[in-house]
Specification:
- The chain is about 40% helix and about 25% strand.
- A hairpin with a 3-residue loop joins strand 10 and strand 11.
- The strands form four sheets. It has a seven-stranded parallel sheet, with helices on both faces.
- It folds into two domains: about 55 residues, Arc Repressor Mutant, subunit A (Orthogonal Bundle); about 180 residues, 3-Layer(aba) Sandwich (Rossmann fold).
- The longest helix is centred in the N-terminal third of the chain and has 15 residues.
- The relative contact order is 0.13.
- Helix 2 crosses helix 3, helix 5 packs across helix 6 and helix 8 packs parallel to helix 9.
- It has about 250 residues and is α/β, with parallel strands linked by helices.
- InterPro entries: Carb_Metab_HTH_regulators, DeoR-like_C, DeoR_HTH, NagB/RpiA_transferase-like, Tscrpt_reg_HTH_DeoR_CS, WH_DNA-bd_sf.
- It comes from Oharaeibacter diazotrophicus.
């Protein structure tokens, strides 16, 4: 079997079953496990999938940079942002993470809402300029251009000083077994810091992020209080219920 044929079969399996188990795939295709593992390594290097122990899972298309992500699932992100904005209560202190969906959340906050938004994303702060009731605390640090957010020790230290009611978190992957993940080590650290400094964690999850996995783990799935999503798959919703994670339909 040619390498191109093996890759096509692996991608078909991934799309159909949501995972590839190396041993099972080897038996199914009549190949050695080493051959399948080599294919998975090469495909992971090309961004076609995410390797995990024993096989592979879908790679998140949300790993693209900020500019590219602005054109992905715009209607869905708007609905998710609107639903998440409704969770921000008067008088609350909330973290709003970076990302295109978080920007939609900021856009949908009422201008007369009296609340405090702490963010390390300049794009989120700019969305709040015309909302005089909202106090904006902008966390500084090294600008990570890929996601247009502040990262690094200074940002982590500033976040640790806050005691927020809720963090509205952006991720590139949310998986019941592999948890919340993202594509950058420093960004994962900042997201963990916001979770640790918040009473509740609300994950903004457009369809391409659900059941996907990225290289850097942020936190276990159970660290999530609520997932705001648009028509999540039944299997994912069932896993969330077992973990005590609420699903809020956008």
């Amino acid at each position: 079997m040619l390498a191109s044929q093996r890759r096509a079969l692996i991608l078909e399996t991934l799309a159909r079953e949501g995972q590839v188990v190396a041993k099972v795939a080897a038996e199914r295709f009549g190949l050695s496990v080493d051959t399948i593992r080599r294919d998975l390594r090469e495909m992971a290097a090309e961004g076609l999938l995410q390797r995990v122990h024993g096989g592979a899972l879908p790679a998140s298309p949300a790993l693209a940079d900020f500019a590219a992500r602005q054109s992905i699932a715009t209607d869905a992100k708007d609905r998710i942002g609107r639903a998440a904005a409704a969770l921000v209560r008067p008088g609350s202190v909330v973290f709003v993470d970076g990302g295109t969906t978080a920007g939609r959340l900021a856009r949908h906050l009422p201008p007369d809402l009296a609340a405090t938004v702490v963010t390390h994303a300049p794009s989120v702060a700019l969305e709040l300029l015309d909302k005089p009731g909202i106090e904006v605390v902008l966390v500084g640090g090294r600008l990570f251009r890929h996601s247009v957010v502040a990262v690094g020790a200074a940002a982590a230290a500033a976040i640790a000083e806050v005691r927020a009611d809720t963090v509205f978190l952006g991720v590139t992957g949310i998986h019941p077994e592999h948890g919340l993940t993202t594509g950058d080590y420093e960004e994962a650290r900042i997201k963990r810091a916001m979770i640790a400094a918040s009473a509740d964690c609300v994950v903004l999850a457009s369809a391409e992020k659900i059941a996907a996995v990225s290289p850097w783990r942020i936190a276990p799935f159970e660290a999530t209080t609520t997932v705001v999503a648009l028509d999540p798959p039944e299997e994912f919703a069932a896993a969330a219920a077992r973990a005590g994670v609420q699903i809020l339909a956008a």
